[in-house]
Design a protein that fits this description.
122 residues, 18% helix, single chain
Length: 122
């Protein structure tokens, strides 16, 4: 499903949904971590924010019950360049998409996260 990120200054970034649907509002921020997306999603410091991951491939190790920072995800949305539909960690219980869907969080892929991050920094 085609998805857009519309910023307050009028700039628009396009992608597609890999989890969830609807509209969400929040401050959009970026994170430069190469790993730890599950911890980022559940970190209370991201409460109400839409997190953009700068690392290009996210979702490849799935989601487990041990790597959470709080009882549920805190973000309003999650933006990635490329979502991996295949996960391979032996501790994984479900995919990232399943986890986001379970918590009614929109996941967006196919966004030029490099351009988005650069725009946010400016």
């Amino acid at each position: 499903m085609k998805t857009i990120i519309a910023l307050e200054d009028g700039k628009v970034f396009e992608g597609s949904s890999f989890a969830g649907s609807g509209e969400r509002y929040g401050e959009i921020v970026f994170n430069t971590s190469m790993t730890g997306y599950q911890e980022i999603l559940t970190d209370s410091s991201y409460k109400g924010q839409i997190v953009t991951m700068t690392y290009p491939l996210i979702g490849n190790y799935g989601v487990n019950e041990e790597d959470v920072e709080s009882a549920k995800p805190q973000v309003e949305g999650f933006v990635v360049k490329e979502y991996s539909r295949i996960y391979s960690n032996w501790r994984a219980k479900k995919s990232l998409a399943e986890y986001l869907e379970e918590h009614h969080i929109i996941g967006i892929e196919g966004v030029d996260t490099r351009a988005l991050t650069k725009h946010l920094k400016e």
